Amino acid sequence: MIVFATLGFDEKFIIRDIFSRGIKQDTKLVIFTSSEDQRVDKAYSSIVTTFRSLPLNIEKYKINIENPFYAISSIRKIILEKIRGHSEIVFNLSGGQRILLAYILSVITSEKINCEILMISEDSSIHVSLPSKIFFPLQLDSISIEIMRTLKEKGPLKPGEIVKTLNRGRTTIWRKINRLMEENLVEFDSRIKRYKITEIGSAFTYF
Q: Which residues of the chain are under the pLDDT cut of 50?
């Protein structure tokens, strides 16, 4: 697992998240900052001290946010290099300057990096975890959207039940379902032999 995190003056968001996920032998933490402020240095030192005796590989990169094109290029190079070989990728964007967060999000979307995006409010009362795929451009026709909304509202359904509910041709429904499965928006539950909407698919129905 690799966790990318933006760091401001408060390190607790990063420390709590890492502990909650569990530290494995190959866990890596990559920290982005945009300031040389002593408070940032203190927060980083606290992170290093907290995990000193644990098998966590920590790296820090200071990004100059004044030049957006250079900053985004630097972030892209770092991220693409570090994610190689990692199937579990997390971006904790709970700290740091908003400009830095925007740069990182632009890299995630432009490179279509499949990951979890975590954001926590300053008082830790709100935790938002989103699959990055909901930010990717995806063209869905009206029938595909109907299928997803039907599965979300009615729960897992057999193919025939979807055809009957939407009053569409069986061939059309099959073709749309296969495409939705390729995009990981719908999945087939072999235990109950029904199709159901995925977490990512459910998120798309709000748009």
A: none
